[in-house]
Design a protein that fits this description.
Blueprint: H1 4-10, H2 12-16, E1 24-27, H3 31-47, E2 52-55, H4 58-66, E3 70-71, E4 80-85, E5 89-90, E6 96-97, H5 104-113, E7 114-122, E8 136-140, H6 145-152, E9 159-162, E10 164-165, E11 168-169, E12 177-182, H7 189-197, E13 202-205, E14 207-208, E15 214-219, E16 222-227
Parallel strand pairs: 1-2, 1-4, 2-3, 4-7, 7-15
Antiparallel strand pairs: 5-6, 6-14, 8-12, 8-13, 9-12, 10-11, 15-16
């Protein structure tokens, strides 16, 4: 049996083969991306590629800069050729829940800018419906987070908790809180996103709907690819 790290490593070659000279890359956040970034640096070094990177978190940007990848601010570019990121859940329609690392707002900005968005994940992230195994992260303003949580909980069966790390409230790179929302089966992701995004104090939700073009999944049987049905 392959362990989870091996399953993640299996996905890297496929996504590296999609990187071309001259590209602007969107580089995501999380454990799978931390395995990928050194491989991107190696590719640039060996093939003398001219690559610009835009990162979805300060943590990824720090790692990439340490490896001499040319990282720029998102406001200094007009387009992204390819965005690569992990996911916390992937459903059969290639819709995602993301935000386990707390970078969901910046991830959404970069993934939506990209001409092509590829997800790399292990088979444990593949679900029948969004919310099956992972709570939906929602980034909210600190000022009225409690009122936002209560409003979200007016939906039948939904419970929320403010994310806490080492006994202190987790704060995103944008200075906000994350509410992790447990969802019952049967919630429509599109309707739920629309409801949440119109609550005053919600910056963004962890629903990534109709955004991913491909998911590369590491499984015990090898690499499987899911492609968006156009």
């Amino acid at each position: 049996m392959n362990d989870v790290k091996q399953l993640k490593m299996m996905t890297l070659d496929d996504v590296l083969s999609q990187i071309e000279d001259g590209m602007t890359l969107g580089i995501g956040t999380g454990s799978t991306i931390e395995l990928l970034v050194p491989k991107i640096a190696q590719l640039i070094d060996e093939k003398h590629y001219n690559i610009i990177g835009v990162c979805t978190s300060n943590k990824t940007a720090f790692l990439a800069k340490e490896l001499n990848i040319n990282i720029v601010d998102v406001n200094d570019i007009d387009k992204i050729d390819l965005a690569i990121d992990g996911a916390d859940e992937v459903d059969p329609q290639l819709n995602l829940i993301k935000g386990g690392g707390g970078a969901l707002f910046r991830e959404k900005v970069i993934d939506e800018m990209a001409d092509r968005f590829v997800v790399i994940a292990d088979e444990n992230k593949v679900v029948n419906y969004l919310g099956e195994t992972f709570k939906l992260p929602v980034e909210v303003d600190k000022f009225n987070w409690y009122q936002v949580a209560k409003k979200i909980e007016t939906i039948d069966g939904v419970t929320t908790e403010r994310r806490v790390t080492d006994d202190v409230p987790f704060t995103t790179d944008n200075g906000n809180y994350i509410l992790d929302c447990a969802l019952p089966k049967g919630i429509d992701p599109y309707e739920m996103h629309e409801f949440l995004i119109h609550i005053t104090g919600v910056l963004e939700t962890g629903y990534f709907l109709d955004v991913a073009d491909q998911a590369i999944i590491g499984t015990q049987q090898g690499v499987k690819k899911m492609n968006r049905q156009v």
